[in-house]
Amino acid sequence: xxxxxxxxxxxxxxxxxxxxxxxxxxxxxxxxxxxxxxxxxxxxxxxxxxxxxxxxxxxxxxxxxxxxxxxxxxxxxxxxxxxxxxxxxxxxxxxxxxxxxxxxxxxxxxxxxxxxxxxxxxxxxxxxxxxxxxxxxxxxxxxxxxxxxxxxxxxxxxxxxxxxxxxxxxxxxxxxxxx
Length: 179
Prior knowledge:
mainly alpha; elongated
């Protein structure tokens, strides 16, 4: 599908699956890196200072860590569902030349944009509005949270530019290209 007079196809058909994949994959990076490997925070690790009255589960106690781990698991389950949904939507929308779509800047640009969208929404909702956890606690908490938001905005902008810079997906029926 192409726009009349346009040199590149419209990317509408891979935009949604790319963004959904990016949200899920970005969530996995956040959960695996920040929650598990670095152990900077868990889903409920700042509820002693939250804005909505969630019971505090101190992640430095066994019972508190157990509850935080349950909520981290729920978070990972949502990320997994997003990845599966993104793959399902992509498979349904791309009927020909799937290899070209996976190798395209269009798809990877939308995935990067989705990751940026994840960072922005998660950073604004969980860190700022709800206050249930922060990127990294301590005296520089606000700077870590701001950096997370800036990184999200950079990923969103870079993803947008990347998907626009690719070549058209010739022969990828239903793929939609990368404009």
